[in-house]
Amino acid sequence: MAASPLMTEISEYINKNDQLGYSLFTFDTDISTLAKTIQDLSITKIVVDGKSLKNNSVVKVLYAILPKQIEITSLTDFYESLFGCIPLAEIEEEWSIREIAEQKSI
């Protein structure tokens, strides 16, 4: 996860609520070591911010670990699962279109 006000809020909440069962590891070093770090730390869930999803190197690493059954979720979706609401500061047009399309019945 990236450093941002949203990430700070999530970190503080998780640190105060051990019963959630999450341990945070912020990765901000060389992307080429990300896959090894995930394996070494037995990471089971990855939360990725929108900026990182636009980085081809990050996307390639995430794609490569898909067969390992590691859950990958967006920062906004993770926030919503924790707090039961959507962080308005993080909503982008793509998210709005996706949500509208999922709600549309045929």
> What structural class do the secondary elements suggest?
mainly alpha
Count the DSSP helices.
6
Overall outline: globular
Largest sheet: 2 strands, parallel
Strand content: 5-15%
Total count of strands: 2
Report the average pLDDT across residues: 82
Low-pLDDT stretches are none
Please list the strands of the largest sheet in the order they lie side by side: 1-2
Alpha-carbon Rg, integer: 15 Å
Distance between the termini: 36 Å
What fraction, in percent, of the residue positions are helical?
40-55%
The helix/strand order is HHEHHEHH
Q: What is the count of distinct domains?
A: 1
If you had to describe this structure to a student in words, what would you say it looks like?
There is one protein chain. The protein is mainly alpha-helical. It has one domain (5-103). The protein has 6 helices and 2 strands, in the order ααβααβαα. A two-stranded parallel ribbon has the order 1-2. The relative contact order is 0.16. The mean pLDDT is 82.
